[in-house]
Amino acid sequence: MELTDTLNSNTDLFYDHLPEHRGTLADLLAAQEQFSKVPADWYVIITDIKNSTIAVMNGLHQTVNLIATGSIVTVLNIAFSAGLEVPFFFGGDGATFIIPPSIAEVTMKALKLYKAHTLTNFDLEIRVGIMPVKQIYDEGHELQIARFKSSSIFFIPVILGNGLNYSEQIIKGPDYLAQEYDDADGEPDLTGMQCRWDQVAPPDKQEEVVSLLVLAREGCCQSKVFSKIMGKIDEIYGSPEKRQPISVTKLRLNTNFHRFGVEMLAKFGRMKPLKFLEIVIKTFIGKLYFHTRKGKQYLKRLVAMTDTIVLDGKINTVMSGTQQQRKKLETFLKEMEASKEIIYGLFISNASVMSCYVRNMDDGHIHFVDGAEGGYTNAAKVLKAKLKGGE
Asked: How far apart are CA 388 and CA 383, in angstroms?
């Protein structure tokens, strides 16, 4: 498989030029004609932390989230330097990217460096794999994408088709052979990666945080099934703003020096006294800054730019609500599962965890949310058990 480093003017700006869809996700998912086929010369890249379930069980769920975030930061810094936008999908213990050919090779070299960096510093191995979109199409799978405005200032990619699921099965499979790349020099560029927020309790009058994964059964119309589920979530929980697990009033900066050390290790691989002091000072200044008018504005934008739903050929979402709401949703999901339309995994926790990519304090920040105690990882464990059991 050859990767090109030259700018392909026909497709490199494909994602940047997609129309912005508004309204509800349920409506967009029902309108398959609004989706565009991903160019065949693009690539899918997947990162995944091996044995993440064991790491989560050993209390390392925030470290797992941070390492997954680091892979996103690595790729987004490359895309930003190239003046490109790329669709990406956070999965708690890994991430998926769809990238143009011009940055494919440099991205894989950077992720190889990040993989070595993470294995050395955390004794956790990241699986990194790449697949041409053309191969996905040649094997008879679909990969369609739309760009959805999920808040007043935040856009997310939405995928229909099982192309990413197919890529994941191959890349995570025992027979996958990763392509070798020359070693990159220096340290991975993790500029902007942060993990300074404490666990976030559900907003007032809400009782729990739900991490949910839903996969459509083969033979079912994915767009109709997902539209139906998102419509039911809207009906039970209300608008995305009402089920948003992050709220300004519950945000607390984590001033634990151990967490500062984990961030330092993740970014630099070693302790840098001056950088450590900088993190400490910025964190404590932040406590004052967030009481200012500009600081309060940043916190409001933080909530608006929080990534709480991922649609990558399956539904991945973290939301907050009451036990009564969750029981209604579970009844609905069980009925759909019994009718062989879906398979789902669900995990309940009492808080959310958040890791961040902050390029600048205005519009250049994204916040990745997972349920506490490894929400996505535990929901995936339930889903995988059902798939293995043939339910």
From this structure: 9
